[in-house]
Design a protein that fits this description.
The chain contains 17 helices and 19 strands. By secondary structure, the protein is an alpha+beta fold. The chain is globular, with a radius of gyration of 23 Å.
Length: about 500
């Protein structure tokens, strides 16, 4: 399969040796990777269906080097694709044949931990889990916990506004990041936000978080750390019907109970996870809910009683409550391993990401089943059920003619269904290239133009991560930044998309 991307600039490719030499002067030693063999690991991110070697890879290890690389690329009209750990499932760091891949894997230091203000200052290459590990000795942790937290970087988390199983109560990345050091394509270094929970002026952190590398490069992040709750216990509740599990989710939230996490798996995902982890999941149910409650012990005990009663009222078939920290972690181990576990069921799979209103969950599941029949493909479903974030896993075999195309069409129809039900195209995986051409399903032309105007304010020449998020490329001049008189553009010789 191929995906339409901006055409390579042959004049830039013709200057490749010159560009590599200039980058080596900025980032000496092993900071520049140029051979085909060494660039192989960078030809795709976690969306491995699409591959493209970059022109060159540069790996700076200081903010000053990042600024100099970006300024050089800006001054010379060279495209730049920022990359963290390469775990993006939407192709957010998909490279370009005529672009510099700017890797931030060397930015892996925890610069400061401030327990008094409950913040940690880290570099973008620090893994999500490493933040929690760095503060665990004082009883603190970092709340967002994507399934890939052992590998995904905090910089990538900001780019995609990542979540995780505990985002229902504690929020996504945007709710847990207070500030950052941010480098513009011009090389200018900005400090956004800080350690205070609130700052004057525009909420620029809200703009940067989820911007998928289109606005600038983050080189330092200030994150909120939380005190571990006194008690955390989990319920594992099985249902004979997926719709009943969806009803239970709605009733728990409707009762004013906000669990630390509330996840759902369907039968295929349950069987795969159990065979992979041996967590003790019931195999005779159609849907499984894992509901975690945390806080003071007295409060948790009362909430468990209430949730158990709600589950029984929805027709639960099984209900197991964790009695130790080890058992709670085992409940979650299967869910966190669901993605690699499903990989044992099929040679290939697509991991989708869409969001719907919680009350539409039964309707969404029924729609996915019908689409599976239409395309003749299996789909294992894993959900952040509490906040309506769906992760359908479409199983296919790329070695069979047209199966990949059917899988992609199946996934696109699932996302269209999400929008139809009042949801959005992404909950935490971003848009990237995977969902780029579906953006008009969710946003009008006017909405998209306003998004692009924000892009133009940060990157007027469109050099940062081009080909992502926006289905139609525009010059900033075409979005109202240039005065048009009498229907005639000034400087008509300038190439335009």
């Amino acid at each position: 399969m191929t995906i339409k991307m901006p055409l390579p600039d042959q004049s830039i490719l013709g200057r490749r040796d010159e560009i590599i030499a200039a980058l080596r002067a900025i980032v000496p030693g092993e900071g520049v990777i140029e051979t085909e063999r060494e660039m192989k690991p960078y030809e795709s991110d976690a969306l491995t269906a699409y591959r493209q070697p970059p022109m060159v890879v540069v790996l700076p290890d200081t903010t000053e080097q990042v600024a100099k690389v970006l300024k050089y690329c800006h001054d010379n009209g060279i495209k730049v694709v920022p990359r963290g750990s390469g775990t993006s499932l939407s192709g957010g760091s998909f490279p370009l044949a005529d672009g510099v891949l700017l890797g931030l894997s060397k930015f892996k230091r925890v610069r400061e931990i401030d327990f008094d203000n409950r913040v940690a200052v880290v570099e973008p290459g620090v893994t999500n889990l490493a933040i929690s590990q760095a503060v665990a000795h004082e009883g603190f942790y970092y709340a967002p916990d994507p399934s890939s937290q052992i590998a995904c970087s905090i910089g990538g988390n900001i780019a995609e506004n990542s979540g995780g199983v505990h985002s229902l109560k504690y929020g996504l990345t945007t709710n847990n990041v207070l500030g950052c050091e941010f480098v513009l394509i011009t090389g200018e270094i900005l400090t956004i936000g800080g350690r205070a929970p609130e700052n004057d002026g525009y909420d620029l952190m809200g703009v940067i978080t989820g911007s998928e590398g289109l606005l600038g490069v983050v080189t330092e992040i200030t994150v909120r750390i939380l005190k571990k709750p006194e008690t955390a216990r989990a319920l594992m509740v099985g249902f004979s019907e997926v719709e009943a599990a969806g009803e239970c989710v709605a009733r728990v939230i409707g009762a004013g109970i906000i669990p630390g996490g509330m996840e759902m798996m369907d039968k295929d995902a349950i069987h795969a996870a159990e065979a992979f982890v041996h967590a003790g999941y019931p195999l005779d149910v159609e849907a499984l809910l894992i509901i975690e409650l945390d806080g003071p012990t007295v409060e948790v005990d009362e909430l468990i009683r209430r949730v158990e009663k709600i589950a029984l009222g929805c027709g639960s078939k099984t209900c197991q409550i964790s009695n130790s920290e080890q058992e709670r972690l085992l409940f979650w181990a299967g869910r966190k391993a669901a993605f690699p576990a499903v990989g044992r069921l099929s040679p290939d799979y697509l991991c989708m990401d869409g969001t719907i209103p919680r009350g539409k969950l039964p309707e969404a599941l029924a729609g996915i089943r019908e689409l599976g029949k239409k395309y003749g493909l299996r789909c294992a479903n894993v959900f952040h059920a509490g906040d309506g974030n769906l992760h359908p896993l479409i199983l296919y075999d790329a070695n069979i003619a047209d199966e990949m195309q059917r899988a992609e069409d199946f996934g696109a129809d699932i996302l269209r269904l999400c929008v139809k039900l009042g949801g959005v195209l992404s909950g935490e995986h971003g848009i990237g290239v995977e969902k780029r051409d579906l953006m008009p399903e969710m946003l009008s032309d006017i909405d998209l133009a306003h998004h692009q105007r924000v892009k133009c304010a940060f990157d007027a020449d469109g050099l940062l991560n081009p080909g992502k998020m926006f289905p139609t490329l525009h010059r900033c001049a075409e979005l109202g930044r240039m005065h048009v008189h009498g229907g005639k553009l000034p400087f008509p010789d300038i190439p335009r998309f």
